[in-house]
Automatic annotation (TrEMBL):
Matching Gene3D superfamilies: 1.10.8.60, 3.40.50.2300, Homeodomain-like, P-loop containing nucleotide triphosphate hydrolases
CDD domains: AAA
PROSITE patterns given in the database record: RESPONSE_REGULATORY, SIGMA54_INTERACT_1, SIGMA54_INTERACT_2, SIGMA54_INTERACT_3, SIGMA54_INTERACT_4
Domain Response regulatory: start-end pairs: 5-121
PTM-bearing positions, type 4-aspartylphosphate: D56
Name of the molecule in the record: Sigma-54-dependent transcriptional regulator
Keyword annotations: ATP-binding, DNA-binding, Nucleotide-binding, Phosphoprotein, Transcription, Transcription regulation
PANTHER family (UniProt xref): TRANSCRIPTIONAL REGULATORY PROTEIN
Record domain Sigma-54 factor interaction: where: 146-375
Domain of life: Bacteria
Length: 470
């Protein structure tokens, strides 16, 4: 049987003995004790892994709250039970904020200690099981880098699988951030071209005057400034896949040239006379309604028919609510590691907020919201107040109006904004207050006061080269 490892820290040897004896009666628990603060820090930050830390608050060589902070920084999943003979509201609140699971006031009955430990270990076991299940669920709802369990996404995965090996051109339609580029990459990855290049180009991002030479390349001397011959993106993609993102924004004169290149699979560099044969698969994507663009004569119908050989419609995130929780958990897992957190759970209340928002920026917006929330959270749970304010308001938590007046809502906004701003500022400067003062353009004292107000500690944002918090 796996025994839960419990570590008890108290400066009084008598107390350690009583606690150890009490817990020894639980047969699935293994107990270690320590009365010296420095030794306790060493064991908590060393190789050993612990399930539960029980620590006294008042000790001569280390304060229990500091031990809690150090231990949870090393292992954010560690469950901590605080013991105190002098309960003060501030210490209790501070301990809870730093992630203590509970606290017991001395003196306590052995049964109370046993019951509390049993409950905390059970909670931890359930959380771990839950994480394991989540990982299994995610594995079965994964298609390459794409995640989705909703019916529309399953259809998308199915279509990708069918069109990928067939070398036909593909048109992907969907609002911004729905994953069009991810789908295009996935098609490339599952095609016979996967060992050659995938060349993406954002048609809306290249200045019109440069588009033709960017696409088709140019010969030396083709125009002033062209001192060398240059390959175009399409030629660069020879043998592979050319991904035209936002094709709806391509100027009409270039549409004609692209159509010709697609029909003949040949191009001519700007200023060149020779035709160059190319073997390129084209995948185009747009968030515009191309039929309407054609009706308004901004998009050529013949180009539309040429690229609309196989078509994939990516539904907006709000129409596939089942995917929201799955994606949110996936992003939490992915980005928590990058930010130095070990394992973070989303509370059911936070999931409810995420699921009732409309996500105009779709999956990209969800991913960013999770990143921002992770920067705000200080313990192993992501709660509604860690989420960007606009989501919480839209979900009705703060802002249904009838319970909150204009000024109250405004103050709430300002407070949330301040907290988010400061957390991101600290993150950008890795806890360097001098650099943060420079960017925020406020006196140092003001910055310290605001950090204190929002209970943010610059030290929590300092990481070493390996990404570990220092
Ligand atoms: N189903 C999904 N599973 C996992 N991540 C996804 C999914 N859909 C989108 N993403 C992520 O969301 C972000 C936006 O996706 P992507 O760039 O493919 O969207 P897009 O539709 O091409 O956006 P735009 O129209 O703005 O170019 C990316 O970081 C991508 O990895």
């Amino acid at each position: 049987m796996h025994k839960a490892k419990v570590f008890i820290v108290d400066d009084e040897p008598g107390m350690l003995e009583v606690c150890a004896d009490t817990l020894a009666k639980l047969d699935d628990v293994e107990v270690a004790v320590e009365s010296n603060g420095n030794q306790a820090v060493k064991r908590l930050t060393g190789e050993e892994s612990w399930d539960l830390l029980i620590t006294d608050i008042r000790m001569p060589d280390i304060h229990g709250v500091d031990l809690l902070r150090i231990a949870r920084r090393h292992d954010p999943n560690l469950v901590v039970l605080m013991l105190t003979a002098f309960p003060t509201v501030e210490t209790a609140v501070e301990s809870m904020k730093l992630g203590a699971a509970d606290y017991l006031t001395k003196p306590f009955l052995p049964d109370d200690l046993r019951a509390t430990v049993r409950r905390l270990l059970e909670q931890r076991r359930l959380r771990e099981e839950n994480n394991l299940l989540q990982r299994q669920v995610e594995r079965s709802n994964r298609f390459g880098d794409m995640i989705g369990c909703s019916e529309p996404m399953r259809r998308v995965f199915d279509t990708v699988q069918r069109v990928a090996p067939n070398d036909v051109d593909v048109l992907i339609l969907g609002e911004t951030g729905t994953g069009k580029e991810l789908v295009a990459r996935s098609i490339h990855q599952q095609s016979g071209r996967k060992d050659n290049r995938f060349v993406p180009v954002d048609c809306g991002a290249i200045p019109e005057a440069l588009l033709e030479s960017e696409f088709f390349g140019h010969e030396r001397g083709a125009f002033s400034g062209a001192d060398t011959r240059s390959l175009g993106l399409m030629e660069f993609a020879d043998g592979g896949t050319f991904f035209l993102d936002e094709i709806g924004q391509l100027p009409i004169n270039l549409q004609a040239k692209l159509l010709r290149a697609l029909q003949e699979r040949r191009i001519r560099r700007v200023g060149g006379t020779q035709e160059i044969e190319l073997d390129v698969r084209v995948i185009a994507a747009t968030s515009l309604n191309l039929e309407q663009e054609i009706a308004e004569q901004r998009f050529r119908a013949d180009l539309f028919y040429r690229i609309n050989v196989a078509r994939i419609d990516l539904p907006p995130l709000r129409d596939r609510a089942e995917d929201i929780a799955l994606l949110a958990r996936h992003f939490v897992q992915r980005h928590a590691g990058e930010m130095g957190h070990k394992q973070i759970n989303i509370t059911p209340e936070a999931l409810e907020v995420l699921c009732s928002y409309r996500w105009p920026g779709n999956v990209r917006e969800l991913q960013n919201a999770i990143r921002r929330a992770l920067a705000m959270t200080r313990d192993s749970e992501l709660r509604p107040d860690d989420l960007p304010t606009e989501l919480v308001i839209a979900a009705g938590d703060v802002g249904c109006g009838k319970d909150h007046g204009l000024f109250e809502l405004r103050d709430q906004h300002v407070t949330d904004f301040e907290r988010q701003y400061l957390a991101q500022l600290m993150q950008r400067h890795q806890g360097d207050v001098v650099a943060a003062v420079g960017e925020a353009k406020v006196p140092r004292g003001t910055l310290y006061r605001l950090l204190k107000k929002h209970d943010l500690n610059p030290a929590d944002f300092r990481f070493d080269d390996a990404g570990q918090q220092i």
